[in-house]
């Protein structure tokens, strides 16, 4: 019966009447308790009458679903040609309707891509990166630009602070010849550049570094609590918000070589939020990519680890340092492992 009736609902709660059967028992001659037969018949008749007072939902019809699908397609075509909506809105609706997952750009860190849940930062969305000074915000932005350029995308960097280090940009691996750099002198100019580049549809990543500097010192106030720039507007409109904090110093033979940072996914409209990723940043070079790949590849079985030995593509290395140096010297092997990892971690991307 339950398989034939998908759902039922009451016409009126006031019409439902159930008799207290548990109060009406009679003792038989041998002392056992049994229901009064007349009451049993009365209850069964009344329950049958109650069944007629329920309404049954219709069984889903494939023909009806196809009809609704065609009607939606017709409505979308009318929106595009009838003047009720702009062509940009129509194009976005068609892309959203026809796709199951939004396109993303990798952050350059597999750990952070895993924490985001979708393999990177979503295209066409606003992303806010905030945190302490010198916590790796600019480094993360440059790695995102690098990954977008790998796919043939154009990127723009609005250097509001006028503090972009060209040597760091090249060390990270960004193609500076194909990077649009603009130093706007005011918030109005910055917004004008962003608006023009966005409407052109030709730029994949636009970095504003930073929103705070575009406000101006005359609007600055004494720091009371941690509040991101732009008030609540950026919090509301951002699809992803990342908070970066310095955790520790990375040292090699008592020499400080980098920073250990923690990235927390504070907000994520495309995946689970409140995840964290701990990354290493090497001064003058960016993310510690080799160490990260070696760790994740060993965890997911792409690199075999036996005791202190590592087996990479059939070659045996007797220590982690030897395996690390091998991957650092052979970019082709490293990129191949990264590709295999992404295929395993994000099969739909």
From TrEMBL:
Domain RecA family profile: 101-349, 226-292
One Gene Ontology molecular-function label: ATP binding
Residues forming coiled coils: none
Organism, as annotated: Linum tenue
GO BP field: DNA recombination; DNA repair
Name of one Pfam family that matches: RecA_N
PROSITE patterns tied to this protein: RECA_1, RECA_2, RECA_3
Protein's recorded name: Uncharacterized protein
Transmembrane spans: none
Keyword annotations: ATP-binding, DNA recombination, DNA-binding, Nucleotide-binding
Similarity section: Belongs to the RecA family.
């Amino acid at each position: 019966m339950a398989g034939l009736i998908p759902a039922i609902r009451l016409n009126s709660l006031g019409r439902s009447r159930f008799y207290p059967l548990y109060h009406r028992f009679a003792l038989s001659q041998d002392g056992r308790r049994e229901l009064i037969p007349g009451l049993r018949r009365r209850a069964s008749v009344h329950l049958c009458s109650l069944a007629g007072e329920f309404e049954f939902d219709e069984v889903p019809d494939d023909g009806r679903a196809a009809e609704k699908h065609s009607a939606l397609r017709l409505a979308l075509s009318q929106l595009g040609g009838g003047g009720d909506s702009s062509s940009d809105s129509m194009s976005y609706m068609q892309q959203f309707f026809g796709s199951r997952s939004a396109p993303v750009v990798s952050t350059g860190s597999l750990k952070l891509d895993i924490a985001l849940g979708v393999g990177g930062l979503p295209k066409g969305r606003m992303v806010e990166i905030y945190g302490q000074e010198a916590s790796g915000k600019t480094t993360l932005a440059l790695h995102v630009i690098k990954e977008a350029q790998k796919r043939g995308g154009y990127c723009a960097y609005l250097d509001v602070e006028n503090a972009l280090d060209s040597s760091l940009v090249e060390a990270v691996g960004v193609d500076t010849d194909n990077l649009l750099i603009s130093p706007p002198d005011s918030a109005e100019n910055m917004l004008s550049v962003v608006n023009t580049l966005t409407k052109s549809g030709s730029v994949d990543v636009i970095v504003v570094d930073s929103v705070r500097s575009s406000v101006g010192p005359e609007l600055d106030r004494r720091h009371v609590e941690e509040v991101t720039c732009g008030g609540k507007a950026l919090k509301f409109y951002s699809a992803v918000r990342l908070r970066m904090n310095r955790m520790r110093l990375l040292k090699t033979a008592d020499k400080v070589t980098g920073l250990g940072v923690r990235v927390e996914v504070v907000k994520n409209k495309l995946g689970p939020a409140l995840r964290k990723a701990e990354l290493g940043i090497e001064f003058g070079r960016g993310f510690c990519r080799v160490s990260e790949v070696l760790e994740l590849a060993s965890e997911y079985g792409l690199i075999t680890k036996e005791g202190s030995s590592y087996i990479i593509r059939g070659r045996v290395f007797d220590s982690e340092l030897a395996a690390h140096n091998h991957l650092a010297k052979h970019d082709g092997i490293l990129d191949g492992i990264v590709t295999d990892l992404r295929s395993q971690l994000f099969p739909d991307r």
